[in-house]
Amino acid sequence: MNVFKQQCIELRKQDHTLLEIMALTSRSKSSVYFHIQSIPLSEKKRKEISEANVQRAITIARARKGISARSFIPFVHWDKDIVLLVAHLLFDGELSNTRCAYNNRSMTLIARVEKLMRRVYIYEPKRYTDTGSGVHKLYYHNVALAAFIKEKALLLLKEILLLSRSCQREFLRAFFDDEGCMDFRPQRNLRRVRGYQKNREILFLVQKLLHNLGIEATVQGKNEVVIRGRENLLRFQEEINFSAGVRINGKRSNSIWKKSLEKRELLRRAIDSFA
Asked: Is residue 255 domain-shared with residue 208, that is, in the same domain?
């Protein structure tokens, strides 16, 4: 083994990045990469790089838009409330380069996101209501906050399977409150919880998280995860459930109930209806 190759391998085993090894050896990127490509960095080092990327994004955002007088409180560790907040912003929110936003018809969920956001950002959001659709909207205009939350949302998708069961429950609670519905049509013998998402990787992630809680679900078509069967619905009710106050839209022309029932009430009726 030549001396340069051995030097690259030893430096990589000491958890040096590609750029660091290039600097230490004064050799080109392609030369170094050839010898270290099969040796991964440690999990600790990858997290350090991720945090550095967040800070770099914040610095760039501030330089582009000017330093905001409204700072935020960054978090490092995941807990139930932080998982719930970031998941809501991920599912029914908007994470752009300049703002964080959350949109929902349910004032229960709007109030929840406002409360959770105060853990990170003490300033009031801009509030709007679309009178046509009845959707309420929260906007947090802060480029540094937006860059931070956007990075954390991507990280959450990578790490949620490694977090505690309580954190996984909150992730699923946000998903089904935001993206889910209770499909109970007695006349057609239909009883199922459905969740919608364009990103199929998220659908399969939700399926794995449900499996961790003893709930079997299937991914159907391009954008749907479905829970069927009395035992699975009962387990869903016990482990996750729809949040109190989250209702179906009884004003829809195709509504079979013609009133805004709580989704958890429909779930209860569906479970009770099994022979």
From this structure: yes
